[in-house]
Specification:
By secondary structure, the chain is α/β, with parallel strands linked by helices. It folds into two domains: 241 residues, Aspartate Aminotransferase, domain 2 (3-Layer(aba) Sandwich); 131 residues, Aspartate Aminotransferase, domain 1 (Alpha-Beta Complex). Helix content is 41%, strand content 13%. It has 13 helices and 15 strands. The strands form three sheets. It has an eight-stranded mixed beta sheet, with helices on both faces. A hairpin with a 2-residue loop joins strand 6 and strand 7. The longest helix has 32 residues.
């Protein structure tokens, strides 16, 4: 054992030494500014190696530890980690459509969600045999328009699934009020909004159930990974069972359940349908160190966004800049910009210019989901003409905003946008 500990300490020191070498200077015009850079360091790397050395690499104590830390951070009672944010959405919806849930969502019943989102908000609704109802978004916040939500409600509506897109909190006060008036579930998609707040309360703690993603490009990363949160113990216990085959192994009441079925080996006792969407201990190892860094990462993103808002406001005749609603804490997954239809240039021209300057860009998620060809294969409903979602799909984009962007990088981005606009508007 002494020799093993000595080797492990040597490995730890080597990992620290390796990461201490990974520094680089930003050279404007030569160094690329990517959408994201790795958010982990030696701590996460060594913790993962330590898991591998123990040979316990499947879901275990480190996953459970991260679940507890993340639930505490968001301010909810229960958390269930899974292998991706997309899976988190699928599992959350599988819980609310499961036969053991009172007033569950039935086949063909409707779930209202924004048209402007990522595919894995909408597709899991279809996966559980519910009907997506797509509504428009606010053009300044990019989040779901609550007036459109109210228009969308029918006697088939069973849930609202708002998306805190790009880290900007939705108007959860109005959404929760609408849901309570109509007896609807609220499923918060927080996959891009780790640490975002409304009046000091973190997103993910407003709905009946919420989801997060820890994909490589998100605020914190477990490489791949996701989380389901809820204050409803029944929902999270069911999620634990559905996460792993429908068996009882991780359930708090497993001993009581197994007594009812003494003729079945409790290790292989299945009480429901299930998937296999468990995370690994390596993902848990990353998470328990990443969560410590999240608030620092958020502050860097917020400082960058404040700088760009100030520098780019002089171009408001041509650009519609994002809005942080009063009383909220936007955590800026990226920095979005919409080119106004009256501008003397197109989104493509601006994006091409930035890419040539080494500034990576992306569309605003999947754009208007109603226009995606996959939607032609399945039943869905849309409310209104989704004009804002259509406009954002055609005229908006975002560039990177993360812990790897400092003073020099953010100034270069703003200066590049300014130079492009000056070229297009001079004379």
């Amino acid at each position: 054992m002494a020799k093993e500990n000595e080797i492990k300490e040597n490995i730890k020191q080597l990992v620290q030494d390796y990461f201490s070498l990974k520094t680089s200077e930003f050279i404007p015009g030569k160094t690329k500014i990517p959408l994201n850079v790795p958010s982990y360091g030696w701590e996460e790397t060594y913790e993962a190696i330590e898991s591998i050395l123990t040979t316990w690499v499947t879901m275990g104590e480190k996953v459970e530890k991260f679940e507890k830390k993340f639930a505490d951070y968001v301010g909810v009672e229960n958390a269930v980690m899974v292998n991706s944010g997309s899976t988190a959405n699928l599992l959350a919806l599988s819980v609310l459509t499961n036969p053991v849930i009172d007033n569950r969502i039935q086949n063909g019943e409707e779930i209202i969600t924004p048209a402007l989102t990522w595919s894995t908000t909408v597709f899991p609704i279809i996966n559980v045999n519910a009907m997506p109802v797509l509504v428009d978004v606010d053009p300044e916040t990019y989040t779901i328009d609550t007036t459109e939500v109210e228009k969308a409600i029918t006697d088939k509506t069973k849930a609202i699934m708002p998306v805190h897109i790009l880290g900007n909190p939705c108007n959860m006060k109005e959404i929760v009020q609408i849901a309570e008036e109509h007896g609807l579930f609220v499923i918060e998609d927080c996959c891009e909004a780790h640490g975002a707040e409304i009046n000091g309360k973190k997103v993910g703690s407003f709905g009946d159930i919420s989801t997060f993603s820890f994909f490589f490009s998100h605020h914190i990363s477990t490489i791949e990974g996701g989380m389901i949160l809820s204050n409803n113990r029944e929902y999270t216990e069911l999620a634990k069972s559905l996460r792993a085959h429908g068996w009882i192994r991780e359930l708090k009441d497993r001993n009581e359940i197994s007594k009812k079925y003494k003729e079945i080996d409790e290790r292989f006792l299945f009480i429901n349908l299930g998937y296999n969407v468990r995370p690994t201990e390596i993902q848990g190892a990353f998470g328990i160190h990443q969560i410590k860094k999240l608030d620092k990462f958020i502050e860097i993103r917020r400082n960058n966004a404040r700088y760009w808002a100030e520098k780019l406001k002089e171009y408001s005749d041509y650009l519609l800049l994002p809005k942080e609603r009063s009383g909220t804490k936007h955590v800026w997954f990226g920095y979005p910009v919409t080119v106004k239809p009256t501008a003397p240039f197109t989104r493509k021209e601006l994006v091409d210019f930035l890419e040539q300057k080494g500034i990576e860009t992306r569309p605003i998620m999947a754009g208007n989901m109603a226009e995606q060809p996959a939607m032609k294969l399945f039943k869905y409903r849309k409310v209104g003409n989704l004009s804002n979602s259509k406009n954002i799909m055609r005229n908006a984009f975002f560039f990177g905003n993360h812990q790897g962007i400092g003073k020099a990088e953010r100034e270069y981005i703003a200066d590049s946008i300014g130079k492009f606009i000056e070229q297009k508007t001079k004379g």
